[in-house]
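To: structure desk
From: M.T.
Subject: fold request, one chain
Message: Could you run this one when you get a chance? Sequence is below, nothing fancy, just the single chain.
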Amino acid sequence: MKLVIVSGLSGSGKSIALDTLEDCGYYCIDNLPVSLLEEFIDHVMLEDKETYNKTAIGIDARNQRKKLGAFPASLAAIRNRGIDCEVVFMQADESIILKRYSETRRRHPLTNENRPLKEALEIERQMLLPVEGCADIVIDTSYSHYHQLRELLKNRLGEQGKSSLSILFQSFGFKYGIPLDADFVFDARSLPNPYWAPELRGLNGTDAPVADFLQNEPVVKEYLDDISAFIQRWAPRFESDNRSYLTIAIGCTGGQHRSVFLVEALAKQFQLHKLNVIIRHRELR
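Reply: Done. Structure tokens follow.
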């Protein structure tokens, strides 16, 4: 089991860190009181190891100062239970945090009518010293933009190369309309049509005789290679832009033969690329 505890200064990017970990398959909990940390481990995490196999917990200055002081002891107790635990602490220059709060106009959790933002930041730094002292990874986000921070976190936590992008390959028939939720639509109607072979007409693209017919057509292979190259080039760009889903729709006249075969072939290929692949044949019943 793996536990990542994310802490740091307000405005330093903790929410981005938790969002990134959630995209990497972590069960994420924000602002768990330190006093409940060990109880959560014993009565939730360890009792449902499948659900909480990878867990990330956000802990910040919304906790009471006294409770934050107990963090090192709680961390030691957790590690004594045999859980692989890493503490990530995020920080940024005061001037940068002040600028971020000015731009977003959000309220710092420690400010009030008698305590300005600058004073709240200083109090927060002091409160979080016990957590910072336990950090395995300290990340300064002063000059990192959103995407750089996501990539940095994935690299530091060993999640690089684990795709969070799901690709849906969908076949359809143009005679029934184009899928409205598709990101990219490819038209396979110019390819040789098995429908005109009487022995293949009643079959579909998942059947071996139809697959053999299309695999023996050089133009089908060229078309398949072109779509594959397009996806290989552009899918990583969608993923780096924090996209979770990408829908590739391939259509032929009736959605029974050519489009079905192409979707099956592409899905089989991209399952080897560590991508999460989903198949849907809209017209097959």
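Reply (cont.): The radius of gyration is 26 Å. Let me know if you need anything else for the meeting.
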